[in-house]
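Hi team,

As requested, here is the filled-out complex form for the iron/sulfur cluster run. I kept the field names the same as last time so the parser does not choke. Let me know if anything looks off before we queue the next batch.

— J.
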Amino acid sequence: MPQRILLGDEAVALGAVHAGLTAAYAYPGTPSTEILEFLLDLEERHGGPHAAWCANEKTAYEAALGVCFAGRRALVAMKHVGLNVAADPFMNSALVATHGGLVVAVADDPGMHSSQNEQDTRWYADFARVPCLEPATQQEAYDMAREAFDLSERFGVPVVLRLVTRLSHSRTSVEVGEAREQNVVRKAPQPSTWVLLPGNARRQWQALVDRQAEITATMAASRWNALTLNAGRRELGVITTGISRNYLRENLPDLGWEPSHLHIGAYPIPADKVRALAAHCERVLVLEDGYPYVERLMRGLLPPGVAIAGRMSGEVPSTGELSPEIVRTALGIPVRAGVALEGFVLPNRPPQLCQGCPHGHAYTSLKEALLGYGATMVTADIGCYTLGALPPYSAIESCVCMGASIGMARGAAEAGFSPVAAVIGDGTFMHSGIPSLVDAAAANANMTLLILDNQATAMTGVQDPLVTSSRLREIVLGCGVDPAHLHVVDAHPRKVHENAAVLKRELDHPGLSVVIAVRECKVAAKKRARTTTAVTS
Amino acid sequence: MTYDIVLAGVGGQGVLSMAALIARAAMAEGLHVKQSEVHGMAQRGGAVQAHLRLSDGVIESDLIPRGAANLILSLEPVEALRYLAWLSPAGTLVTSANAFVNIPDYPAQEEVLRHVRALPHAIVVEAERIAEESGDLLAVNTVMVGAASHLLPLASASLEGAIRTTFNRKSEATQAANRVAFAAGRRAAS
Ligand code: SF4
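And here is what came back:
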């Protein structure tokens, strides 16, 4: 079979293509971004399947849902916190009788390399009562993506594919198979199963609950859940999920023997196999890159019949991503000594805004405008500009979730704080800032919104914006902002003081004002120059 | 045989292109390769690392275990020192001498290099000077791959082949500069 060198993310994308994918939708977010990047590139070179960035994860999910309503196969991809945004369509799509296969690829970020939390998507799959597959290798990512579509069509539910950073962003060779044809367009036969009015929803919910026994049995028997018992030794059994199996195997040569082992790659968990392992062993070590999901299910409320070791009992750290060392320590093997560095303190090198980044100029203006007030407040959002929380700028004071800056500023203003500024990028504003701006405009909240329009979703690798700067202004006006208090300025270094004066004036205005600071991201400009040359040469 | 390499540098310096060159050569020799990369936030001028594992057998972990790396290959001396816990006591550190100063508390450069040179197996390469002399300042990555080429379990010809394939759509001048840069880097570390 042909081999391809693929990132874990790319393996998911190609697996979906070979499963007969018709369309894929996503909002960029590390570590999931490369799934759609791969598909966009493929579409550009081969004309399909269709791939598109969307305004946010919810709109992406709904577009995918429409594809499967029309009987075809769809993929929607996002980072873990993106599923919070798409939680509404996700939870409800479990109740409709999905028609074409729907696969939800979610990349978790244990250790929070590029995220605000390390929530574990397996809980979401459980919450929605849908199957979940968790690859341990890039090969499994490819194979599971293919299989997930079949499972989705068989059970009429979306299927979650849970990835983690280290798999998403590691590349190796993958054996790929034959491509399946796409489904033909064929509308879902019983529209009532898609109309979740209470009467239908009750019936659909009951049907989903009734299907659980069959789903659970099928997933438990899956080839991705493998139990091997060591007949000769009972002192230890190990449960791994996803990539923790790689860390176990990496360390086995030094352990010197092979404990009984259950690997879980398909959920709901294979309860009988867990019980068989527990019955065979005196102690079970549970290794999960993420929350202690399996461990918590095993422990339940009453004392378990077997000693369980894991994140909840301290053998594995309670937070953070797994590593070969953490697994090694949990197995009781001393960590190998590396090379020591003595008498030298390494400086940290946190990420920072690029040299000449327009956000830097905008922050200089904002800080200048805020001078001279007593206490000030700057709420902010998620993107490159979040780095403005660090020195030398130290310009912003919050970063909670996509779009939170505007709502928080409104609330703080209504709590009586003044002056309040909110900072959001153009991408994040389109993602989930608009509804909050509608709120703030309706309330004429005493706050100033600074939109940093750099014409790119820069942090995740400079994706193109969905709307141009000129339309951004119209959108802001359409939210109900008073044109007298809307300014579009150029975030040019020479205009720093001029822009500070505009901001200062608007901070003093007792009501809502919006300043859009426009200047293209340096990296986006470079990328555009490159593609233009490539096209002309 | 397993050969583990921690590649280090600052976001934007080209750590991933260095990894890609070596990975390409290893695959041409029929080895298994796993390459773990850092994407996202850290790429904005922060400390960046990649783990590259080469083996004639199955590679399990995407991450190199601590104390197991055969080689640290770094584009920046402070970044080279950041991952010493991963370096096997028998392993070697190969780093560019050129500091990338984008933090206010960057230590004195001589001090950094003194600590690098005090390590049991360390090679310091004047990568920027060599790249410039080779005709392309951007060929620093290729210089460093050349410098590491004595240590890698790969034929020099495979690495040269990987450089050819990587740059074959670039200008003739870029191709030539990279050929020269590889050879000069190799000489500098011999
Ligand atoms: S990528 Fe663009 S937006 Fe992000 S820091 Fe660099 S210049 Fe600024």
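Two things worth flagging: The domain at 2-189 of chain B is CATH 3.40.920.10 (Pyruvate-ferredoxin Oxidoreductase; domain 3). Chain B has seven helices and six strands.

Thanks,
J.
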